[in-house]
Design a protein that fits this description.
The chain is mainly beta. Helix content is about 5%, strand content about 45%. The chain has one helix at about 25-30, and strands at about 5, 10, 20-25, 35-40, 45-50, 55-60, 65-70, 75-80, 90-95, 110-115. The strands form 2 sheets. Strands 2-10-9-4-5-6 form a 6-stranded mixed beta sheet, with no helix packed on it. A hairpin with a 6-residue loop joins strand 4 and strand 5.
């Protein structure tokens, strides 16, 4: 059974930080590249960062230098450290596998991040 559970979101002021966590079932996490996505209200879901199984990260230009993705393969967990948050970062954040061009049907509940003063 596939499972993705995201946590760590909340309300933060501009310039603040949050750390998101995601626990994935073994059948999702094992040997897969994992990604953090965000879905702002009224907009499409987009990839913000991804990490290979051996820890090589990639970032969208909008978050490079502010966000850091990491993973713990022993725990089936992936993390997103978000610093210098901006109002435009406001969205529901999800984790999932990442393979270019592949769309996934199953998603977790996500975690809401709101950046506002």
């Amino acid at each position: 059974q596939e499972q993705l559970v995201e946590s760590g979101g909340g309300l933060v002021q501009p310039g603040g930080s949050l750390r998101l966590s995601c626990v994935a079932s073994e059948n999702i996490f094992a040997h897969e590249q994992m990604g953090w996505y965000r879905h702002p209200a009224g907009g499409p879901r987009e990839l913000v960062a991804a990490i290979s199984y051996d820890g090589t990260p990639i970032y969208d230009n909008s978050v490079r230098g502010r966000f850091t993705i990491s993973r713990d393969n022993s725990k089936n967990e992936v993390y997103l450290q978000m610093n210098s948050l901006k109002p435009k970062d406001t969205a529901v954040y999800y984790c999932n596998r990442w393979r270019p061009g592949v769309k996934y049907d199953y998603w977790g509940q996500g975690t809401q991040v709101t950046v506002s003063s």
